[in-house]
Specification:
By secondary structure, the protein is mostly beta strands. Helices cover about 10% and strands about 35% of the residues. It is built from 12 helices and 122 strands. It has an 8-stranded antiparallel sheet with strand order 104-103-102-115-114-113-112-111, covered by helices on one side. Strands 105, 106, 107, 108, 109, 110, 116 and 117 form an 8-stranded antiparallel sheet that branches. The longest helix has about 35 residues. The protein starts with a helix and ends in a 14-residue tail after the last strand.
């Protein structure tokens, strides 16, 4: 292929040159070389390179050549055509004759004839002479001589650049400059980098970035940078981990992945088992989470299986009973409530029987309870059943069984951590530190794994977790890793037994004239560059020959100023001056002698008689005449001997050619340096005396200083050292940290970082492994919790059931304790005889069975009769939809039995329905008229009005009528009505008569009864209207009110609920026997009465005068009206409070409101205080103290006054004072109450501040701010405040901030060391009355003073708190603090009846907390804290009775509404049994209640009592 195609090349070149000649000769355009030919030339040059290419790809390399040869063939064809044209032209030219032509000139692209003139520019004139162009500048134009620019002169037409970015041109005296052409930028702020002409948006790492462009920082894949308005802003990439233990990120990426797990320094693949340290659980890695499941245990055939150490599953070889392990066939004793119980373990079953107490070996007291036997060990006595640990034997546990102490080794339960430590002297290993590879580390300590230096570890709660350290990038090609070294680093250099770090520059240790640098483990040295000496014959210095303080000449060295003979010419004398040598021929002096003698080897003749010489100081050969010599004691002076006398002068010093010469023997010398008062040898490096972190070099008398070159730090986050970054700390994200310091990750609040030797390792804060398989990480939390589940990306609340994300149509999953339990949805039964498999493999029907009829799939049909539904059969299921009903505008609607849609219901009266707004005649009283208004029937006798002078009344007429239909001169037609006067309630109608002409009959309009309308909502009638209206909806007669009566605002009507309609009938007034003058209508009555002695009513066994009013409770007010008790009761709307709210009462208000959920504080016993935050305190001061106070807003304050119990140092609560506003309420012994010093009867209301009531045996005070105080009248007080006071309370009840640890804060806000100091700090002056002695509280232990027997009896009696009587409460309220308080009280109270009261105080306090937590224990017994009730009056005792009992006055209130508005806590006390109501301290049946008429539902203000 190459041979034939290469042949035409010479021809191509010949034709090309011919075409050029022809075109030039004819003035045509020059035919340029085609670009393909240039390519061929290039290929010709590259031929050898192509020939040496591998032979494995001939086709790939030959294809471009074939394409170029193809294009060459096309060019050849074109050249052949052009060649033909050229040959034709040549023939024509050959036939022409040549004649001499006039010479022409070419200029500006034109042919100019001889003598033509033109101007190529305004400053130049050209002329054509003899075929040549002659151009000259115009001499008469001064501006054409050139240009001046910035003080520089430029010739006309000259192009120059004043700077690297500007090009200027001088033309006709004018300078025109042009800047660079730059591309347009899209950012607001830009800058021009050094050495460039065009501005850019951002530059980073030598690269230009556009505005808005993002990139990853080199070497840090977690750092994302962006160019914004000319500034580079970098941020850390946020990694959202969807799993708690993600695998480490892939190389070059930033974020961890959930396709594996990284735990305890190890990588695990998904599905790989993970060691948990718990032999009874199997854990594995599941997509970044650790799922643990307990090993399955087979069911055991016993009720109390025991556990064997080292085994996971319980077995029936022993028993576990009440938290203790017993061996099979072992007999043990228990003590419950003072009784001795003997139990035995038989193959996992426990059987118990009560046993009489054996005779104690000790002398029993003459009286008192019989005690169980005790054990004596090492002189100390222990009660029966007590377990203890002997002193000095921590691994031994003892118990008292049948009076015999039995001791054995303690069995340790497995520690809940992976690397526990057994402290010295302790029995069982604990998680307070970590034992790892034989070393003990404290919790929170960071350390490096001894076996793996590339892992940094941390001890957390007894478990060691390790992670791999991140290594910094290296700067060399072959980094090395040594033993015990974690990260690879560039090798150091060793030279002359000294070590130099990579990249360091230094002087050769033995040859300061060499400069060395450490590069990749090799020291590369080269001689230092010597400065040129300023003299001709310098002396050699330490490194360079440039010392001009002497001369080196002819192979010898001479001091400065020395005279010496020329080494080769004895007749020439030389002198050394500052490194230069001057040699002159010796001039012979004239001799005074007539016959001088020329001695051999001398240059000048001498007189025979020698002239006198000069003596040298210090002796020696005298100096000859004209000889120079130096003084031995002053070498810097030069002397000349002249005729026996010496003249001396100081040698001149040449200028030192260096900046910091040192002082030589005579003159400054550049052989060293004098720098800031110190001398340094040439080539010596030293730290700069005045600039820290700079290193100086003395070189040939000059000192150069430069910043110290720091070797690259061998850690990624070095701390700032004095000069160079050091790995003894860390600088991370702009903050400095010490080595081994822990700090929160500034980028991720759930991460914890550790600085270790310049390395920063960050990881998630350690979370305890959840004990569930699918834990949930709530928003704002770092650790997963089992209070929810995350299952395939779906979150679920505890107990929530949702479709299985993997099979949403066929499976349901329930979240239980952090694990998902999924099961297949149950298949509905197939109602057809031949079902077929359908979705979820459930049998489905292709037809439906409805009402006994079969319908095919897709068929539509009517639903069951009366259902008002239209149904469709689809996939075997009948789906029905209710037919839509038109909207109705009326309030009362009813749906007929055979009808689908409701209709507007009127009123039902006497079994007949009347439409809304209609009127009719009462069937039993033709002169009574009834009307229907909003479902209320109002019936009343017609009230007649006479409008004419002589009316007449027929037998069947209810009212007299006029004889015609004319009134005040106007005649009315039959059926026409009019208003006879100004009263809009009067109306007249012209009616036809059976006989005779029509006549007018007049009556008063009837107004509807406004049942249930409060007085405040009554609206008077407007102009030309007769009847009042109600601003709110009227009461509905519902099924719950059937049979009840209610009085509307008009006292003349009585309303009764029947047939779901209020039937209101006008009361018939009786005939009175007294004359009209003695009649009067009492206020609120309908009928007039004779003025007679008023009838009284009976209330609580006393007569209440007519007209007197009293309050039954805050919701009900009654009055006596003519011997009848009439009561008004307020109705409360439904109340819905949020999850963090609870209903509460405002003083004087019947209906509750929502307040933030409250917390309570209790004082009980000798007094013990359980704070708002749950801490139990014991304080025995007998003065007055602040119990609870609003210390921020001063809304209220509660004080307690304690009294001495009779035993030294022990007190109890005597009274409570509540300060609200300016009012002081005192709650005294016996449930007496005073307000501002005066006794009051309960209930007591003082709006709007407070309301005090007595419920059973408890006084309850409600204050305006949501405060509630309960006082039992003896020693127990409870204070409850809403959650809005969180963090602003103070006093003995603590600060209510959610942390019990800081409850011992005094008034100054300081934590006090003891409970006694804390209690005394809150002492306040006592209230009014005679002062009494009081004593401050001390730290006392009454059980220590009472002795062992009293302590043992107190433990036994208080054991009821931990018994099964309170068992249901133990899970919600821990009994241990109350047990300790109970024992404390019984020791303080001593024996006798007082001890029983103390015991009941403690038990009642615990039971009260149980009731508040929602658990009501049945703990009282026939002889334990019995509460006596009046059985003869029908009362029974209830541990948690309703605080608002049902009475004759509120029995009409629905039970749900009564419970909703009674938001007080339940209290123990005497209650009426179910079915009975309370009336005047007796339990009676509702039928036995006296007649009480309900007159409305809005209680009046204020609340009087019957005595008032």
């Amino acid at each position: 292929m190459a041979g034939p195609r290469a042949a035409p090349l010479p021809l191509v070149l010949q034709l090309t040159s011919l075409a050029l000649v022809s075109a030039t000769g004819r003035g045509g355009a020059i035919l340029r070389e085609p670009p393909e030919l240039a390519d061929i030339h290039d290929n010709g040059q590259q031929g050898p390179a192509l020939a040496s290419a591998p032979a494995g790809a001939p086709q790939e390399q030959g294809r471009p050549l074939e394409e170029r040869l193809g294009r060459l063939e096309a060019q050849m064809m074109a050249l052949r055509e052009q060649n033909k044209e050229l040959q034709v032209r040549v023939r024509r030219l050959e036939s022409c004759e040549c004649r001499p032509a006039s010479a022409q000139c070419w200029g500006l692209g034109w042919a100019w004839p001889k003598g033509a003139r033109w101007e190529p520019d305004p400053c130049t004139a050209c002329v054509c002479r003899d075929g040549a162009v002659h151009c000259e500048p115009k001499p008469d134009l001064p501006h054409c001589h050139g240009c001046s620019h910035n003080g520089q002169a430029y010739g006309n037409g000259e192009t120059f650049s004043p700077d690297a970015c500007t090009t200027c041109h001088c033309l006709a005296g004018t300078v025109q400059c042009q800047g660079p052409s730059c591309s347009e930028l899209n950012c607001l702020e830009s800058y021009t980098p050094p050495g460039e002409c065009c501005p850019v948006c951002c530059t980073e790492g030598g690269s230009h970035r556009e505005h808005g462009q993002e990139w990853t920082a080199p070497g840090d894949p977690c750092r994302i940078c962006q160019c914004l308005e000319g500034h580079v802003q970098c941020r850390q990439q946020e990694c959202t981990s969807l799993c708690p233990y993600p695998a480490r990120p892939l190389p070059g990426t930033c974020c961890p992945l959930c396709d594996g797990c990284f735990l305890n320094g190890r990588e695990y693949h998904s599905g790989e088992p993970v060691g948990s340290g718990d032999p009874c659980a199997h854990c594995r890695c599941a997509n970044g989470s650790i799922q643990c499941e307990p090993l399955p245990c087979p069911p055991v055939p016993c009720r109390h299986p025991g556990r064997i150490p080292g085994q996971c599953c319980p077995v029936c070889d022993g028993c576990e009973y009440q938290g203790h392990q017993y061996q099979s066939e072992e007999t043990f004793r228990l003590q419950e409530s003072g009784r001795c119980i003997r139990c035995s373990c038989q193959a996992g079953e426990v059987s118990c029987e009560e046993q009489e107490c054996p005779v104690a070996p000790c002398t029993l007291p003459a009286s008192g309870p019989q005690l169980c036997p005790a054990c004596v060990l090492d002189g100390e006595e222990f009660a029966e059943g007590v377990q203890w640990e002997p002193d000095g034997q921590p691994c031994t546990a003892c118990a008292c069984h049948d009076g015999v102490p039995m001791c054995g080794a303690v069995l340790c339960s497995p520690a809940p951590c992976q690397h526990p430590t057994q402290p010295p002297g302790a029995c069982c290993p604990s998680c307070e530190s970590c034992t790892y590879q034989g070393q003990v580390y404290a919790n929170g300590q960071n350390f490096t794994d001894a076996d793996s230096p590339c892992h940094t570890c941390r001890c957390e709660e007894g478990t060691v977790r390790c992670s791999l350290v991140d290594c910094p990038p290296t700067t060399c090609a072959r980094p090395q890793s040594g033993p015990g070294q974690c990260c690879p680093r560039c090798p150091d250099c060793i030279l002359e037994e000294r070590v130099f770090v990579d990249g360091e520059s230094f002087s050769h240790p033995r040859d300061p004239c060499q400069e060395c640098q450490c590069q990749e483990g090799h020291a590369r040295c080269q001689p230092r560059a010597c400065p040129r000496a300023p003299c001709a014959h310098p002396l050699p210095g330490p490194c360079c020959q440039n010392d001009c303080n002497g001369c080196a000449f002819g192979g010898k060295e001479y001091p400065n100023g020395a005279d010496f003979p020329h080494p080769s010419d004895p007749c020439r004398q030389c002198l050394c001056l500052s490194g230069s040598v001057q040699c002159l021929a010796r001039r012979c002096p004239p001799l005074p002698c007539p016959e001088p003698v020329l001695l051999p080897g001398e240059c000048c003749p001498q007189c025979p008689a020698a002239s006198s010489g000069c003596p040298r100081p210090g002796g020696g050969v005298p100096a000859r005449h004209l000889e120079h010599f130096s003084l031995p004691d002053d070498p810097c002076r030069l002397c000349l001997c002249l005729h026996g006398s010496a003249s001396c002068q100081r040698l001149p010093c040449p200028p030192a050619p260096c900046a910091h010469p040192r002082q030589g023997p005579c003159c400054p010398s550049c052989a060293g340096c004098l720098y800031q008062g110190k001398e340094f040898a040439s080539g010596e490096r030293f730290p700069a005396p005045s600039a820290a972190c700079h290193l100086c070099l003395c070189w040939e008398g000059s000192v150069s200083c430069e910043p110290r070159t720091c070797a690259p730090a061998q850690c990624p986050f070095p701390a700032r050292g004095d000069c160079c970054p050091a790995c003894d700390g860390c600088e991370y994200l702009g903050e400095s940290y010490l080595s081994s310091q822990e700090f929160p990750d500034p980028r991720e609040p759930c991460n914890l970082c550790t600085c270790l030797g310049g390395f920063v390792t960050c990881g998630r804060r350690p979370c305890e492994p959840p004990g569930c398989s699918l834990p949930l990480t709530p928003a704002g939390h770092c650790c997963p919790t089992c209070q929810g589940c995350v299952y395939h990306g779906v979150s679920a609340a505890p107990g929530e059931t949702l479709p299985d994300p993997l099979d949403p149509g066929c499976s349901l999953c329930t979240c239980q304790e952090g694990s998902m339990h999924c099961q297949k949805k149950p298949c509905p039964p197939a109602l057809c005889p031949h079902p077929s498999p359908g979705p979820c493999f459930c049998p489905v029907c292709r037809s439906c069975l409805s009402q006994g009829q079969e319908h095919w799939d897709g068929e539509e049909f009517e639903g069951p009769p009366g259902s008002c539904e239209w149904c469709r059969c689809q996939a075997g299921q009948v789906s029905c939809v209710r037919l839509p009903c038109p909207p109705l505008s009326c309030l009362l609607q009813v749906t007929e039995q055979a009808s689908c849609c409701p209709r507007c219901r009127g009123c039902l009266a006497d079994g007949e329905e009347h439409p809304e707004g209609s009127s009719w005649v009462h069937p039993q009283s033709p002169c009574s008229s009834c009307m229907c208004h909003e479902g209320i029937v109002t019936c009343a006798h017609v009230q007649c009005v006479i409008s004419c002078a002589r009316p007449h009344q027929g037998l069947n007429d209810c009212c007299p009528r006029c004889s015609d239909c004319e009134h005040e001169g106007r005649k009315y037609e039959p059926g026409e009505s009019f208003q006879p006067g100004a009263d809009p309630c009067e109306v007249c109608v012209c009616e036809l008569q059976p006989e005779g002409p029509p006549g007018i009959q007049c009556h008063r309009r009837q107004c509807p009864s406004l049942v249930g309308c409060p007085t405040s909502q009554l609206l008077p009638p407007g102009p030309q209207h007769c009847c009042p209206t109600c601003a709110q909806a009227l009461s509905n007669c519902t099924e719950g009110l059937l049979g009840s009566e209610l009085a509307p605002p008009d006292p003349c009507y009585t309303c009764r609920c029947q047939d779901l309609t209020w039937l209101c009938i006008h009361r018939a007034c009786p005939e009175l026997s007294c004359p009209p003058s003695e009649r009067h209508t009492p206020p609120g009555s309908c009928c007039p009465v004779c003025r007679a002695p008023a009838q009284s009513c009976a209330h609580q066994g006393r007569a209440v005068a007519s007209g007197e009013r009293w309050a039954v409770d805050v919701c009900t007010t009654c009055s006596c009206v003519a011997g009848t008790v009439r009561c008004q009761s307020q109705r409360c709307p439904p109340l819905s409070c949020g999850p963090d709210e609870a209903p509460a009462l405002s003083p004087g208000s019947c209906c509750p409101r929502c307040l933030p959920r409250p917390a309570s504080c209790t004082a009980f016993g000798d007094p013990h205080y359980r704070t708002f935050d749950g801490r139990l305190l014991h304080f025995q001061g007998s003065c007055s103290y602040v119990l609870a106070k609003d210390c921020r807003g001063a809304d209220f304050s509660v004080h307690v006054t304690n009294d001495n119990r009779g035993r030294r140092g022990v007190a109890w609560t005597q009274e409570v004072a509540v300060l609200v506003g300016d009012v002081v309420v005192r709650l005294l012994q016996g449930r007496a109450v005073t307000v501002d010093g005066r006794p009051v009867a309960l209930p007591f209301l003082q709006e709007p501040l407070l309301y005090v009531e007595l419920q059973r045996r408890t006084v309850i005070l409600h204050a305006q701010a949501g405060l509630q105080v309960l006082w039992d009248g003896q020693s127990q007080v409870e204070v409850s405040v809403p959650g809005s006071y969180r963090g602003q309370m103070c006093g003995l009840c603590g600060n209510f901030n959610g942390f019990a640890q800081d409850d011992l804060q005094g008034p100054e806000g300081l934590l006090l060391p003891t409970e006694a100091a804390f209690g005394n700090s809150w002492q306040v002056p006592e209230g009014p009355g005679p002062s009494r002695p009081c004593s401050k509280g001390r730290e006392v232990d009454p059980c220590r003073a009472a002795g062992y027997r009293a302590r043992r009896e107190a433990n036994a009696r208080c054991g009821v708190l931990t018994s099964s009587s309170f068992g249901r409460c133990h899970a919600v309220v821990p009994p241990e603090p109350f047990f300790a308080a109970c024992v404390y009280d019984l020791c303080a109270c001593g024996p006798g009846s007082l001890a029983d009261a103390c015991l009941c105080d403690a038990l009642e306090a615990y039971a009260s907390h149980c009731r508040r937590a929602g658990v009501t224990p049945a703990w009282r017994g026939p002889t334990l804290c019995v509460v006596g009730c009046a059985l003869d009056r029908g009362f029974v005792f209830d541990e948690c009775g309703p605080p608002c009992p049902r009475t004759c006055f509120n029995q009409h209130v629905p039970p749900g509404e009564l419970a909703a508005r009674c938001v007080r806590p339940c209290v123990p006390g005497c209650q009426c049994p179910a079915g009975l109501v309370e009336h005047e301290a007796h339990c009676v049946s509702p039928e036995a209640c006296p007649h009480i008429q309900l007159t409305g539902d809005q209680p009046p203000r204020p609340l009087p009592s019957p005595s008032q």
